[in-house]
Design goal:
Elements lengths: L1 H29 L13 E6 L9 H8 L2 H4 L2 E6 L11 H7 L4 E4 L1 H8 L4 E6 L6 E6 L25 H9 L18 H5 L6 E4 L2 H8 L4 E4 L12 E5 H6 L1 H20 L1 H12 L6 H19 L11 H13 L16 H69 L3 E5 L5 E4 L1 H7 L3 H4 L10 H15 L5 E9 L5 E12 L6 E9 L1 H28 L6 H71 L5 H26 L9 E4 H11 L1 H6 L3 E5 L5 E4 L1 H19 L8 E9 L18 E8 L29 H13 L2 E6 L4 E8 L3
């Protein structure tokens, strides 16, 4: 018994000594400040260096400052202009390297500075596309990148804007160093193009286009992304020393900055006005800066790809690709690695943690060796017990796994659409039913907000109610909401939402369950309408009965009438519910079918033309007729066709809710472009085009929609003419203008005597349209072509575009030898 007590006491003493030694070793680590950053009640002072003067290019940083996002993160931020008081440009990488700034905005100059020895780290990329472009007058002879070597191209020495041009030349196999460099500080503007000083000049953020637009000039613009050169634009960066010593400060600054950019991109007009009021209030150019910043806001929105791409997103492969270009151009001496180039808060946390652990690792190893022998005998005795515990743990993990699988199956098999969101409404998890209800994939939903799926009329109220739940003003939400699917369809849902505590983060998430009540909503509204009609009938009958003295037989007859009315009411209610449900179903199916049919129709003709281009190219190669001129001309036509097919997808996505943005374009140039796309088809079928009029008139609207409308009519005419006799294979295209009194529409004639209407006539000699088809020619899915050769959507689409987007009209009449289509469009000042 005494021996047993001695053994037990020995075990207790050994355990206590081991625990005491371990606590003594770990206490310095547990008491150590986290990653070298100590808490302070005073805000951290931070300096941000811009790369140019104050303008909308940096709106997100101003928004984070003015909206208090920096203050909320405990930061006191000073934003410095990129131009000093003497008018000199401050180089952002040098400002950070010298310690004059903690953060700065840069682009490819960051990589160049790192190669020269600067110790920098990129925090976030704001511009997902490069703002660099190259500009020339509209009539400049440009067909390929090779033409830049023959034109007078302005290329300054050590110019950052020239790097992407060099990359494009390199990809084309052209030596980018064979040029006469201009002075580095030479200022270029639109006047250099206008005066003929240079044929091509570089520009940033489309400023050259803005200058040309101010003088009513049109330019050609070359974007490097269109030739495979995909550089990042403005990016936020800091010093590597600050990234190592104060990673938490950098993460706070990054979060506040990205929040500021989201606000700026969602309130562009407000930010454009405030930037001008803040920095140029005393300047005579104040109104100019408001207009310029408003113009620049649209360019910045396109460059950030917001909201499609998350603000601040960085792809290491794209940075690596930029590094490869710089290395191949001999602009950097050695290839850089992205592992030490990009700031990753979580990775730095792990590095810091590993650093402190390594400091005490040798001590812990020594202690472990000293105590290991004391515990060997104890571990031997515990082996059996540990094996038992391991088996128990495996069984427990298996039960947890099965439980998780059951939960996931229940989550996905629920008849309710279920989402789990964070405090900002971002979807963390969504089940398959909600994906089915909204039309989005589950991985797409986890990149969205619950407010993205609300119908526009429900968004404002939805955000207000969610804020009450998040702030604890209400414990749960239960209401009916109108949602919008990926396919622009709307449905009613009964929502129940409540807060649930995440056991890992101890923060509130929000569980939402939605039941589709669209049919119930229809039934309820139908019942209400039927009940109103029924009550109106009863009230009218009661009014008539006030003048009648009923007897027993009349009362019995009245009861029978009441029973009959009730039966009719129920039957009418059921019929109305079935009819309305059928109408909704048919409308949804028709919308989806129409969209798919439209895209298929718009792609069929370009694909045919593309096939003819490839055939002609093969013939030229086979008969040794292929030279550089023919090759470039053929490839350019193919690129135009592929670009049209790509733009068709975007246009039809917005077909039911078109964009309000518009542009001015020349009608004759658009007709030339359409005929150029059809060139091979016309040549193959030996069809001659005769042009009359050549009116130099501009229209305002969506140029691509107009070209599609005219393209459809000309394509139909080509299909009709190619089956005619060779002598009749002619198309006549005539453009003219007219006053209101010259039309058969009763339009008002403008007293200024200016033509107010543009008329485009397209005439063929293909024999005309069959008489039975005359009244149906503009109906959807009606076609006179053989099965498989047409969808019957072309003229329907043309009529919709001309009438809805351009407020014009299109009609036709039969001539002696064929058909003449006439498009009449109002000319806007």
């Amino acid at each position: 018994m005494i021996h047993l007590m001695y053994r037990l006491n020995k075990q207790i003493i050994c355990r206590c000594m081991g625990l005491f030694i371990l606590m003594a070793c770990l206490s310095p680590i547990l008491s150590m400040p986290v990653f070298g950053e100590t808490a302070s009640s005073l805000p951290d002072e931070v300096v941000l260096q811009l790369r140019w003067e104050h303008q909308f290019q940096f709106a997100g940083y101003y928004a984070a400052l003015w909206q208090g996002y920096y203050d909320a993160e405990g930061l006191e931020v000073e934003i410095k202009s990129g131009i000093d008081q003497e008018g000199n440009v401050i180089l952002a990488p040098e400002a950070v390297s010298s310690g004059d700034a903690d953060f700065a905005v840069g682009g490819v100059d960051i990589l160049l500075a790192i190669d020269q020895g600067a110790d920098l780290r990129i925090v976030s990329t704001i511009f997902q596309r490069s703002p660099v472009a190259y500009y020339m007058l509209k009539d400049a002879p440009f067909n390929s990148i090779y033409d830049l070597t023959r034109l007078e191209t302005a290329r300054r020495e050590h110019d950052l804007l020239d790097i992407e041009l060099q990359a494009m030349l390199l990809d084309e196999g052209i030596d980018p160093t064979r040029y006469q460099a201009l002075p580095k500080n030479l200022v270029l503007s639109f006047e250099d193009l206008k005066n003929g000083t240079y044929d091509v000049i570089p520009g940033y953020l489309d400023t050259i286009s803005y200058q040309a637009h101010q003088q009513d000039y049109e330019l050609k613009k070359i974007k490097p992304i269109n030739y495979g050169v995909d550089f990042y634009g403005d990016s936020l960066f800091t010093s590597n020393a600050l990234a190592k010593d104060r990673p938490k400060l950098i993460e706070r600054f990054r979060k506040a900055t990205l929040k500021g950019w989201a606000y700026a991109l969602e309130h562009p007009q407000e930010m454009a006005q405030r930037i001008a009021d803040t920095f140029y209030s005393d300047s005579e150019m104040h109104d100019y800066y408001v207009e310029f910043n408003t113009f620049q806001a649209q360019q910045v929105l396109e460059l950030t790809l917001y909201p499609v791409v998350e603000i601040g997103n960085m792809n290491p492969y794209r940075w690596a690709n930029m590094i490869d270009y710089l290395y191949n151009l001999k602009l950097i001496n050695k290839p850089l690695t992205t592992e030490r180039l990009l700031f990753d808060y979580r990775l730095i946390q792990q590095e810091k943690s590993s650093f402190y652990i390594r400091i005490y690792q040798s001590v812990l190893v020594a202690i472990a060796i000293a105590t290991l022998f004391g515990y060997i005998w104890y571990m031997n005795r515990k082996t059996v017990q540990l094996q038992s515990e391991i088996e128990f743990r495996k069984e427990t993990e298996q039960r947890i796994s099965l439980s998780h699988d059951r939960y996931q199956r229940m989550f996905d098999s629920s008849f309710l659409g279920i989402t789990v969101t964070d405090r900002n409404g971002n979807i963390l998890q969504a089940n398959s039913k909600w994906a089915e209800m909204t039309g989005y994939a589950q991985d797409q939903l986890t990149k969205m907000s619950i407010f993205d799926i609300l119908s526009p009329q429900s968004k404002t109220e939805g955000k207000q109610i969610f804020k009450k739940l998040r702030d604890g003003q209400v414990q749960e939400i239960e209401l009916e909401r109108l949602y919008r699917t990926k396919f622009k369809e709307e449905f009613w849902g009964h929502l129940y939402m409540t807060a649930v505590r995440d056991p890992e983060t101890m923060e509130d998430n929000y569980l939402g369950m939605v039941h589709d009540i669209t049919e119930k909503k229809i039934q309820r509204e139908t019942a209400e309408r039927a009940e109103k009609r029924f009550r109106r009938i009863v009230q009218d009958l009661a009014s008539e009965m006030e003048t009648i003295k009923p007897d027993g037989a009349f009362i019995e007859q009245l009861e029978q009438i009441n029973l009959e009315l009730e039966r009719l009411y129920k039957r009418e209610l059921e019929d109305n519910m079935k009819k309305e449900a059928l109408i909704i179903h048919q409308a949804r199916q028709a919308a989806m079918g129409e969209m798919v049919g439209n895209i298929a129709h718009q792609w069929r003709q370009p694909l045919n033309n593309l096939g003819l281009i490839i055939t002609n190219l093969m013939d030229a190669y086979r008969f040794d007729e292929l030279d550089d001129v023919l090759m470039n001309e053929t490839c350019n036509r193919a690129r135009l066709l592929m670009r049209q097919m790509s733009e068709t997808i975007d246009d039809f996505q917005d077909f039911l809710s078109p964009s309000l943005s518009s542009e001015s374009f020349h009608v004759e140039q658009t007709l030339d472009m359409i005929l150029e796309l059809l060139k091979d088809n016309l040549k193959f079928n030996k069809i001659k085009i005769i042009r009359h009029g050549h009116i130099d008139t501009e229209l305002r609207g969506q140029k691509n929609q107009f070209s599609q409308a005219v393209f459809n009519i000309i394509s139909n005419a080509v299909d009709a003419v190619k089956s005619s006799q060779p002598s009749n294979r002619t198309l006549i295209i005539k453009t003219s203008t007219a006053h209101g009194d010259q039309l058969d529409t009763g339009a008002y004639q403008d007293p200024s005597n200016k033509p107010k209407y543009l008329i485009i006539e397209i005439t063929d000699h293909a024999g005309g349209i069959p008489e039975k088809a005359v009244d149906k020619i503009f109906e959807p899915y009606f076609t006179t072509k053989s099965k498989g050769e047409g969808t019957g959507l072309g003229l329907y689409i043309t009529k919709s575009i001309i009438e809805n987007s351009f407020n014009g009209y299109v009609n036709f009449h039969l001539t002696e030898t064929g058909t003449q289509f006439t498009i009449t469009l109002p000319i806007k000042e």
